[in-house]
Amino acid sequence: MTAESKPADAAASATPLAQPASVVRLEVRDLEIRVGKSGPDVVGDISFAVPAGQVLGLVGESGSGKTTVALALLGHTRRGLRISSGEVRLDGVDLLTLSRGDLRATRGARVAYVPQDPAAALNPTLRVGTQLREALRVHPGAVDDPAGRVLEVMREARLDAAPEMLRRYPHQLSGGQQQRVGLAMAFCCRPSLIVLDEPTTGLDVTTQRHVLDTVRSLCRSYGVAAVYVSHDLAVVGGLVAEVAVMYAGRIVEIGPTAKVFGDPVHPYTRGLLAAVPSPGRAETLAGIEGQPPRPGRRGRGCSFAPRCSFAIDECRSQAPEPVLIDSREVRCIRAADVRSAADARPAAVSGPGDDGRSPALSLRAISARYGRTPVLSGVDLDVPPDSCVALVGESGSGKTTVARCIVGLHGNWTGEITFQGARLSPRLRDRPRDAVRRIQYIFQNPYTSLNPRKTVGQIVAQPLEELLGLPFRERSERAARALEDVSLGRDFLSRYPDQLSGGERQRVAIARALVVEPDLLICDEVTSALDVSVQAVIVEELRRLQRERHLAMLFITHNLALVRSIAQQAVVLRDGAVVESGPVEQVLEHPTDAYTARLMADVPRL
Amino acid sequence: MTVAAPGKPPAAQARDTRTARHPWLTVLATAVRLCLASLVVLLAIIGPLVSPGTPTALVTFAFAKPSGHFPLGSDFLGRDVLARVLNGGWVLLIMAAAATAFGIIVGTAAGVSAAYRRGRADGLIMRTVDVILAFPQLVFALLLVSVIGPKLWLIVLAVGLSHAPQVARVIRSATLDITERDFVKVVELQRMRPSKVMAREILPNLISPLMVEAGLRLTYSIVIMSGLSFLGFGQQPPAANWGLMINENRIGLELNPWAVIVPAALIALLTIGTNTFTDAVARVTLGVDRLPEEAVLTDDLGLGRTT
Fold first, then answer.
1. Which one of A68, A576, B31, B113 is separated from A133 by 20 to 30 angstroms, measured CA to CA?
2. Which of residues 110-139 of A touch B (CB under 8 A)?
3. What percent of chain B has pLDDT over 90?
4. What's the whole-model pTM score?
């Protein structure tokens, strides 16, 4: 589409966001939330409307302000923040002007909240039934028959409405059941607005899909306006009709989901979508370099300008106003140019095939136990040299235990682990120092794997001292080079982990693993604590390093979509046993095992 | 509870932001506390240098009222109270500081090794700690001193040792938390020696709880040291000592109250000053009063910061 035809086209295709048939339930206008009395704004210029029976998706990465907005819909802010201006109208009444008592009566009865972690949100000392009835007791008159209502709402949330269920304590429920109880509590007073804050984040894909189905049917049958907050674009894409993308406290693009995700206009939305891995395609991932500015350091212009390839001088000097393009509002002055720019297709990934060389690492009949509990039973696994094997499984399948057995953190196993032709003993201290050096392990969470009291230089140089016994000068020189290898400059040497972003921390962890020049790299869910745009950058970095250094790599993940982008072979683990293994395309596209097939079917797709 | 969402209405939030004190006010309050404590410390340290006379010289009659010559009057033997006050603090302070340092070092070593080594070492150390904790702190010190005799080094050791179990408990639980973090596993994978792991990886992360403990223990040390002196187990007469002075001169409280009031007030000021100051330092290092900006930014993904 050319720039000239834009205004006419936009006008023609612009449909009112709220269908005339449905009444607008929730309307947010110019909401602004600041730190303290005169601090910088955390979010601002937030305006949207949600009609009855519709779900609005609020997506963004960490720090974008999506949870802050979600809580403001309940008239709440976290400690230290303040709603400085704006309106949150629910059926015409501004919640922000209500008195304390009125607001309390509104919450739960007319506005309900489903938090992220159901295990933390449910009171562990009260039975499920007690907690459900409590919601109805707090709001007398919300429903006619409380006891019947509890059973009814449980059935609607697809929970077993038997009396035994009501007598259970939260810890006796699975994660999915806990979240269903959370949903039942939210819906039991028949609210007008429901705010869901990443309700499926901690759940496995299959459970997630079932919970999402429940959310969808509940919202539809109750005719509530719902706001669904998530960082997972694929989840939101399958659930909501309208989506708002947040960046640095502003809504940068809002409109129908099909438009925003199918044909994104804002450069940030485009970047975000390019970063999302897909289980169906083997493509490189394109991350977004840099990180969002923090409140108070956002400058005058567009907050995304420093990371945007379309940015011009004007972007840096003035904050963009929203413009209407093709039925969505975009906060970008170059929206038309961006849209006409060709979309660079990501390059396809092709890895080295299996050339029949003997594997670098091979596991035979590994059985491991924690105390008396068996965790692994007879796991066989081969990692060829110079290639990447993905170890896939849901939580509790024993993926991490496999890794811990290989590196020597867990010694209670039987079977045989052979690395470069030599058997590895279960205990770390019985292994030769050189074998320890050749296998390096990267931990899941870079927020706990770096000692906060040490500088990056000390952290990266540490293994050189312990494993190679190098003198100080050579250690610091090698550490500096290792940092450069993971695209961090020498100036990071003297920084502390607290001063780094999540992505930078994980790069430091990668540098620490690579500094001793290992032959096998084990990556244990290394991107699960990171945002999707950062995940893409880290995965690409790992792929590049694996190629350049001819590393054997074991990439452990629960994220099936990610497997295609990095690995050549996949091994699926379930309840401590391998159910399927083989080349990635074969395992993911033509699974022979029913479990793998189900996992693939349940993965949310864009 | 899920449905009745957490939080407060706007009115309550406004109150919240108001009660969160301005940072400068906190700094000012801390400065006042620091001044209070350091004035007394200064008095104790430079006291001997500016003292108008020797603290043990008999200069006038017993319990003389304050006069131009002796601003605080005289004590039960007719010695100058001002000279004794100025000379009577520094030994007390040094002993309290030494006992605190000793207690912190022993307690930290015990607590860190118990938590990191676990197993039998943990059981042995912590049961010893339980046994020592069964005695009240002052009684424990008194027991040792009364058996061996009132030697200053022994008092320091006894008081320090009586602190160690409590320090060990606090440090052990803090260490347990740190040991679970991945960065400890990382260096274990590098086969770092356990002693080095404890000293280089764990200890630097214990600074915050150690600051809190050090402040608390210093305050207790001062009180116990003064108490022991008051009971006659500290410095022996004729040495000048604030605790001892209170005991010696309480019989003449009606004749010259200053001989009791001034040393008592100095001990009180010192205790309150060190306690509130170290408390403020601890609040800063633990981040109790920190603005929630960082929390807001990291909360969206539910990532905890490792502070």
1. A68
2. 111-117, 121-123, 131, 134-135, 138
3. 20
4. 0.81
Nearest-5° Cα angle at A204, A202 to A207: 105
Alpha carbons B284 and B289: distance in angstroms, whole number: 7
Q: In this structure, what are the phi and psi dihedrals at residue A459, rounded to the nearest 5 degrees? A: -65, -45
Residue B192 sits at the chain A interface (C-beta within 8 Å)? yes
Residues 6+ apart with CB under 8 A from A446: A502, A505, A506, A508, A509, A529, A530
Smallest CA-to-CA distance from A233 within A277, A266, A203, A263 is with A277
Residue numbers in A near B9 (CB within 8 A): 75, 98-100, 103-104
Please check whether residue A258 touches B, CB under 8 A.
no
What would the pLDDT profile of A167-213 be if each residue is shown by its tens digit?
Answer: 999 988 888 889 889 988 988 888 899 999 988 877 888 888 888 88
Closest CA to A439 of A452, A426, A420: A420
- Rg, C-alpha atoms of chain A: 26
Q: Which residues of A384-405 are buried (b: 16+ CB within 10 A; e: fewer)?
A: bbbbbbbbbbbeebbbbbbbbb
Q: How close B98 gets to chain A, by Cα (Å)?
A: 27
pLDDT of residue A354: 55
A46 has which bridge partners? A31
Query: A-contacting residues of B 207-226, CB under 8 Å?
Result: 207
- H/E stretch holding A583 reads strand A577-583
Our CA angle for A316, A320, A323, nearest 5°, is: 150
In chain B, what residues touch A67 (CB-CB under 8 Å)? 299-300
**Which chain B residues are closer than 8 Å to A135 by Cβ?**
1-4
Q: What pLDDT does residue B23 have?
A: 64
Q: In this predicted model, what pLDDT tens digit does every residue of A441-493 receive, in sequence order? A: 999 889 899 999 999 999 999 999 989 989 999 999 999 999 998 888 888 99
**Domains of chain B and CATH, by start:** 25-89+240-307 (no CATH), 91-238 (1.10.3720.10)
* All domains of chain A in start order, with CATH: 6-110+191-340 (3.40.50.300), 120-190 (no CATH), 361-602 (3.40.50.300)
pLDDT score recorded for residue A309: 85
Angle at CA of residue A94, ends A220 and B302, nearest 5°: 65
Q: Is A301 on the interface with B (CB under 8 A)?
A: no
Report the distance separating Cα A224 and Cα A192, nearest Å. 5
Structural contact between residues B164 and B132, judged by C-beta atoms closer than 8 angstroms: yes
What residue of B is the nearest CA neighbor of A63? B297
In whole angstroms, what is the distance from residue A274 CA to residue A561 CA? 13
Report the alpha-carbon distance of residue A445 to residue B183 in Å, rounded: 10
Structure tokens at A205: 């894909």
Tens digit of each residue's pLDDT (9 = 90 or more) over B234-281:
888 888 888 888 988 888 888 888 888 988 998 998 888 888 777 777
Q: What is the largest CA-CA distance in chain B?
A: 79
Q: In what order do the strands lie in the sheet with A193-197?
A: A111-114, A193-197, A225-230, A55-59, A242-247, A250-256, A328-330, A323-325
Q: Which residue has the higher pLDDT, A497 or B301?
A: A497
Identity at B26, one-letter amino acid code: T
Identity at A513, one-letter amino acid code: A
DSSP state at residue A358:
P
CA distances from B168 to A209, B89, B105, B147 (A): 49, 29, 9, 26
The answer to whether A366 touches A412, Cβ cutoff 8 Å, is: no
Distance from CA of B296 to the nearest CA of A (A): 7
Helical H runs in A223-320? 233-239, 257-262, 267-275, 313-317
